[in-house]
Design goal:
The protein has about 375 residues and is of the alpha/beta class. The chain folds into two domains: about 120 residues, P-loop containing nucleotide triphosphate hydrolases (Rossmann fold, 3-Layer(aba) Sandwich); about 240 residues, no CATH class. It is built from 18 helices and 14 strands. The chain is globular and about 65 Å long. Helix 8 crosses helix 14. About 45% of the residues lie in helices and about 20% in strands.
Length: about 375
């Protein structure tokens, strides 16, 4: 497995550019490990804001932090949202303002004060668990089954991985969400999260989920936004343009980590996964996450019409339009839906990502691309 030197370099570049660098991602995805690697390369002081002793050290934060000339690392900053206004005061000082690396497991949308306090002063870096570039492309089945959380992926046995994920889900519901000041019963959120796992890869329908749970549309939308803001769920937004066709305008919902998805669906080994009706949806979500990790487009969408045409992933790179269709098949072929997406969206190229071993051109603008070679896709985007 490759280490994360590339990510450490990206963090250090952001620290040089911006007074405050925010490393955001789900709990247990490796943020603290990366931050400590950054600290080892330079003079830095570290505060864990979930540690009682570190919280006591920061009882007078402006005085303590204002004296520092070293890089200041604040881990789990969403536990002390009042510090964002302190950071603004410190980085606006004319004389030798400090640099901050802040770590968080909640998006700015969930932590009040981030955008208002630090607008124009902060750079965000998103971090997830391991991807294929780190696990090695030959390990894609293990990564798919176990997910990318380091402790789940690296567990000594599959049973240990399952146990870790079950503990992660329980801790997330019982501790992490309440620490954000969100008062939702753990049992209700667990039920919603499990139900969402069965809707993985489908278009969001708040009314249907609300009826199933006996809740209001607004309540289930709140639950969805919380799971999105804590990096558990991806809402893939629809792309729509003036085509003279009725296009779908609701997001598609994916659980971002395939291992957590499999735990919520009670799929604990390869045979259970391959025999489950949602195996194709699981593969689709996993492949989409790997494509996004490799390509890193500024924005990504899906596209669909009420007439049945659909494209799993659509993005623009350097002014060129690209599409990705995911197929859990050994020998994928083109479909009428792909042809419609190719023409209606004026795609420069469409890739069919599948679990095979060979890449081959199906059409002048359509290529079958094995997931194992997804790391080479960015180079293909740069070709004329």
């Amino acid at each position: 497995m490759r280490d994360r030197h590339d990510r450490v370099g990206a963090i250090e570049a952001a620290i040089r550019r911006s007074p405050v660098t925010a490393l955001l991602g789900p709990r247990q995805c490796g943020k603290t490990t990366l931050a400590r690697q950054v600290a080892a390369r330079r003079s830095a002081i570290y505060f864990d804001l979930e540690s009682p002793s570190d919280r006591r050290r920061l009882e007078n934060p402006e005085l303590v932090l204002g004296r520092e000339q070293r890089l200041i690392i604040l881990d789990e900053l969403q536990a002390r949202p009042e510090l964002f206004s302190v950071l603004r005061v410190l980085v606006d000082r004319p004389e030798r303002p400090p640099r901050f690396l802040v770590l968080g497991s909640a998006s700015p949308a969930l932590v009040r004060g981030v955008s208002e306090s630090l607008a124009g002063r902060i750079e965000f870096i998103a971090l997830s668990g391991f991807d294929l570039a780190e696990s090695g492309s030959e390990s894609w089945e293990r990564l798919w089954l176990r997910g990318g959380f380091p402790r789940a992926y690296l567990a000594r046995s599959l049973a240990d991985s399952v146990k870790w994920r079950e503990g992660f889900i329980r801790t997330f519901l019982e501790r992490d969400i309440p620490q954000l000041g969100i008062t939702i019963p753990a049992a209700a959120m667990r039920r919603f999260w499990t139900m969402l796992a069965h809707y993985h890869g489908q278009t969001w329908n708040s009314s249907e989920l609300a009826r199933s749970m006996g809740l209001t549309d607004k309540t289930v939308r709140t639950y969805l936004d919380i799971l999105t803001g804590t990096f558990m769920v991806r809402q893939l937004q629809p792309w729509h343009q003036n085509l003279g066709k009725r296009q779908i305008k609701a997001p598609k919902i994916y659980l971002r980590d395939s291992g957590v998805l499999h735990s919520l669906l009670d799929l604990h080994d390869r045979s259970a996964l391959l025999g489950h009706p949602r195996v194709g949806a699981s593969w689709e979500g996993f492949a989409i996450e790997q494509v996004l990790a490799a390509v890193r487009p500024s924005e990504a969408y899906y596209w669909g019409t009420h007439g049945g045409a659909e494209l799993d992933l659509f993005f623009v790179v350097n002014g060129r339009r690209y599409g990705v269709e995911v197929k859990f098949s050994d020998a994928p072929a083109t479909t009428r839906s792909m042809r419609m997406a190719l023409e209606d969206l004026a795609l420069d190229h469409l890739w069919i990502v599948y679990p095979g071993e060979h890449r081959y051109r199906i059409d002048e603008r359509i290529t079958a691309w094995p997931l194992q070679a997804i790391g080479e896709l960015p180079a293909a985007l740069r070709r004329p």
